[in-house]
Amino acid sequence: MPLFGLHPQGLLQTIFEDIGVALFVVDREERVVFANRTALQLFDTTSAAEGARFRDLRSKFRFEDSSGNEIPLAESVVIRALKSEPVESQEVRLKKPNGEMRWLTAWAYRFSSMGLEGVVVLVTDETTEVEARKAAAQLQRMETLGALAAGITHDFNNILNTITSNVALAKQDGGYSHKVGNHLDQISDAVNNAAGLIRRLMQFGRSQDLHLRSLGVNDVVRDVLRLTQSLLHKNIRLTLTLEEDLPTVYGDFSQLEQVLVNLIVNALDAMPDGGDLTIATHLALRNQTDLVEKESILPRIQQVQISITDTGIGIPIETQSAIFEPFFSTKPEGKGTGLGLSSAFGIIRQHGGGIEVSSSPGVGATFIVSLPAQAQCIATLH
After folding, report:
1. Which of 30, 243, 293, 338 is deepest in the core (most CB within 10 A)?
2. 187 and 167 in contact (C-beta within 8 Å)?
3. Whose CA is closest to 49, among 65, 66, 67, 37?
4. Alpha helices in the chain (DSSP H)
5. Which residues are 93's β-sheet partners?
6. Contact present, 378 and 301 (Cβ < 8 Å)
7. Main-chain phi, psi angles of 333, to 5 degrees
8. CB contact at 8 A, 97 and 61
9. Helix, strand, or coil (residue 344)
10. Which residue in 120, 124, 106 sits closest to 28, CA to CA?
11. Which of 8, 17, 62 is nearest to 40 (CA)?
């Protein structure tokens, strides 16, 4: 009997298509006999999926558990359910050929009806929720590291000041040999290098004083390009896209320069054989809680964004969440301290903004620096 003008079969078809989860049916010969629109999108295919063998569709992707171990076909919920084995929901990480990653939860239920035997499979996409949880956990971790760095740098800076003072006194006393003088100079140089590391840790831990003023990000970008011009070799193709009439931001010019120089140098290091470097600025409307942890009466604010994109070696997905941590570096030993990105992170966070990264190995990387427009930034600064 038609229901509200719809035949039951048509009603079920509509529900299956609009249910919002991937739903497909696999018969006991492992053929896909039905797949709704969401399932087809999951398999990056068309209605040609129907009639295809499940194992052939699955072989195009990599399925992993939460530890990154590949899940064999025999351990998938579909095959286990077809074998009448006890099946619980299975959380999987799906890696597509284009590098896209999705977090999924799958269920499979065996059935036998109207001459058809097989399993009904439901798959929900949990990517948004999982990434939100990971982002919150990472934010908490970075805040903890920041507090730790601030405490350590304060104590260590006192030690360095003591060394510096005693070296200065020793030099004033005189009466030492040339060899001893060289040793004192080496101590001074080492202390100065250590002080430089301390300053960068202080930036990460938000212990650095900022000299804030109204400024335009395009002016910062142009000045940074002037400073880094000598690094742009002939095999680097630079594309500059600066949006005009951007709102000003309230920031420390030299500190923001340091952030951009660091990001540009990293981009160039990722392209030792040359490539494309793209620097762009634009205006975006963002939820403030996307970038800073404190709630605000301004749920959505204008963000002036600077993006730096390279076509280099890219960053492995599994290490992207750690690149802003102090002393973490993807560079070979001796090629970096691992403080560049961490200090950049601290500087931008102290400006009430944030840094995001998007990258895939072999494809390149994009770093986006977001700063609140000056009219709204007072509410975001600490």
Report:
1. 30
2. yes
3. 37
4. 8-18, 37-42, 54-58, 77-82, 127-173, 178-204, 217-228, 253-269, 340-350, 374-377
5. 64, 103
6. no
7. -60, 135
8. yes
9. helix
10. 120
11. 17
239's enclosing H/E stretch is strand 236-242
pLDDT of residue 312: 92
- Torsion of the alpha carbons at 40, 58, 53 and 84, rounded to the nearest 10: -110
Q: 263 or 183: whose pLDDT is higher?
A: 263
Contacts of 237 (CB under 8 A, 6+ apart): 274, 275, 276, 277
Q: What does the block give as tokens for 354?
A: 């944030």
What are the φ and ψ backbone dihedral angles of 307, each rounded to 5 degrees? -110, 140
Query: Which residue do the tokens 């060899």 mark?
Result: 179
Beta bridge partners of 31: 53
CB count, 10 Å around CB of 34? 17
Average the pLDDT over each of 2-6, 100-104, 199-203 and give the range with the smallest value. 2-6
Contact between 96 and 44 under an 8 Å Cβ cutoff? The reply is yes
Check residue 144 and give its pLDDT. Answer: 59
pLDDT at 36 over 50: yes
pLDDT-derived band of residue 13, with 50, 70 and 90 as boundaries?
low
CA dist 283 → 247, 299, 305, 355, 374 (Å): 8, 17, 6, 15, 12
Q: How far apart are CA 253 and CA 213, in angstroms?
A: 8
In the block, tokens 């194992």 appear at: 55
Question: How far is the CA of 244 from the CAs of 141, 144, 215, 368, in angstroms?
Answer: 37, 38, 14, 18
Residue-averaged pLDDT of the chain: 77
Widest Cα–Cα separation across the chain: 109
Question: What values do phi and psi take at 83, rounded to 5?
Answer: -90, 5
